[in-house]
């Protein structure tokens, strides 16, 4: 079986180093808000090129806290791609804000900037872009619109750690950015973990306090905050894995390029790429009619695939108030999309096998 993602294999490459770092945490006996958190956040900020990085408990919290720290709430609208993972939208509704769903470009599955302006109203406060599947969103166009209407821009970087857009890494392309280190992401912890990056020192201080019971200094609570922190063990593990992120992303890119040049079956639509370095291939998606039949064929040939995602947010029972809405491009993507195995531990033989099996599909 060619696995979609073999996490044990991915993480075991760093076992000796990680064991040592976990041992150091145990020896120290300090589990929250200590040296490991400080070290990782410093390294991750340097990696992204931002002034600040705050470790939080997960990606959803990172997104939610960014919106909250800006003071956006009831009645405020935030532009967001209609085909994102539901967490991006939940961060908006959790703050009482209204998500203004915008259709993507079907070739890249990223937000279509030409459709943003018509979604802007006097109540619009921000544009939340998602670097979906690992590819940086068209930030230049987004920023131009944001400047024109004086909107904030936020990034959901949960799938795109390390992607570079016009010489800058994602996480450093907006007012504030959210990362997830969920185990399956390109930079994954051994449990839940997340981060916020920003160049805005005031905002950094505010999210830092909000994530720590609203406390700006010990036993002093400035806000009605929450508890959302990155623990020492996860920070230590992430600090080890961060050193290998670029090499791992390069291998993902190599596999993606192999798929893009070797998969020639006319029934399979390959993804479009703006520019090599903008994409870190969190997932490699293709589109095809009769997708479920295609998935069954791959399974029968020993290739595990996943669907990102089978149901768009506006069709989820949680958003039954949107059930009558229609986002045809989003729906078309969810109906036809399928993700092929891609990971830094796939062998060349496995990659070739995937392409061969797909080319023999009729
Ligand atoms: C994974 C993911 C999230 C949520 O991150 P968690 O750490 O699981 O809360 C948010 N947005 C996108 C696009 C994601 O892929």
What does this structure look like?
By secondary structure, this protein is an alpha/beta fold. The protein is 37% helix and 15% strand. The protein has helices at 7-12, 15-28, 35-48, 59-69, 86-94, 139-149, 201-210, 232-242, 245-262, 291-300, 328-336, 348-359, and strands at residues 52-56, 77-81, 98-102, 124-130, 152-156, 164-165, 168-169, 176-180, 194-198, 215-217, 220-221, 284-287, 337-340. The chain has a 7-stranded mixed β-sheet with strand order 1-9-8-5-4-2-3, with helices on both faces. The longest helix has 18 residues, at 245-262. It is globular. The structure holds pyridoxal-5'-phosphate (PLP). Pyridoxal-5'-phosphate (PLP) is lined by residues 58-60, 84-85, 87-88, 130, 156, 158-159, 180, 182, 192, 194.
Separation, N- and C-terminal Cα atoms = 21 Å
Bound molecules: pyridoxal-5'-phosphate
Rg from Cα? 20 Å
Shape: globular
Q: What are the low-pLDDT stretches, counting only 5+ consecutive residues below 50?
A: none
- As laid out across the biggest beta sheet, the strand order is 1-9-8-5-4-2-3
What's the total helix number?
12
* Element-level helix/strand string: HHHEHEHEEHEEEEEHEEHHEHHEH
What level of helicity do the residues show?
A: 25-40%
Sheet having the most strands: 7 strands, mixed
| Structural class computed from helices and strand pairing | alpha/beta
Instruction: Provide the residue-averaged pLDDT.
Output: 97
Number of strands: 13
Strand content: 5-15%
């Amino acid at each position: 079986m060619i696995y979609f993602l073999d996490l044990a294999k991915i993480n075991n490459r760093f076992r000796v180093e990680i064991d040592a770092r976990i041992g150091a945490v145990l020896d120290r006996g300090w589990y929250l808000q200590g040296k490991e958190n400080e070290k990782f956040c410093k390294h991750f900020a340097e990696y992204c090129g931002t002034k600040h990085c705050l470790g939080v408990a997960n990606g959803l919290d990172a997104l939610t806290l960014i919106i909250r720290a800006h003071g956006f709430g009831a009645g405020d609208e935030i532009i967001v791609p209609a085909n994102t993972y539901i967490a991006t939208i939940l961060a908006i509704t959790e703050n009482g804000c209204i998500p203004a769903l915008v259709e993507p470009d079907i070739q890249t599955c990223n937000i279509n900037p030409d459709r943003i302006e018509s979604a802007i109203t006097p109540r619009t406060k921000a544009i939340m872009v998602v670097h979906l599947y690992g590819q940086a969103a068209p930030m230049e166009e987004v920023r131009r619109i944001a400047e024109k209407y004086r909107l904030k821009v936020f990034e959901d970087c949960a799938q795109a750690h390390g992607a570079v857009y016009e010489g800058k890494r994602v996480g450093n392309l907006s007012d504030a950015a959210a990362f997830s280190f969920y185990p399956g992401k390109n930079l994954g912890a051994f449990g839940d973990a997340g981060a916020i990056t920003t160049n805005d020192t005031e905002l950094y201080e505010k999210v830092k306090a909000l994530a720590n019971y609203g406390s700006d200094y010990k036993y002093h609570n400035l806000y009605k905050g929450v508890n959302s922190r990155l623990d020492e063990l996860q920070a230590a593990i992430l600090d080890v894995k961060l050193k290998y992120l670029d090499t791992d992303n390069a291998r993902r890119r190599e596999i993606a390029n192999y798929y893009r040049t070797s998969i020639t079956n006319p029934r399979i639509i390959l993804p479009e790429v703006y520019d090599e370095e903008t994409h870190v291939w969190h997932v490699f998606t293709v589109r095809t009619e009769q997708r479920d039949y295609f998935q069954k064929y791959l399974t029968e040939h020993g290739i595990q695939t996943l669907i990102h995602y089978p149901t768009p947010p506006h069709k989820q029972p949680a958003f039954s108030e949107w059930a009558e809405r229609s986002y045809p491009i989003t729906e078309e993507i969810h109906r036809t999309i399928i993700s092929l195995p891609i990971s830094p531990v796939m062998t060349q033989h496995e990659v070739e096998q995937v392409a061969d099996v797909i080319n023999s599909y009729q």
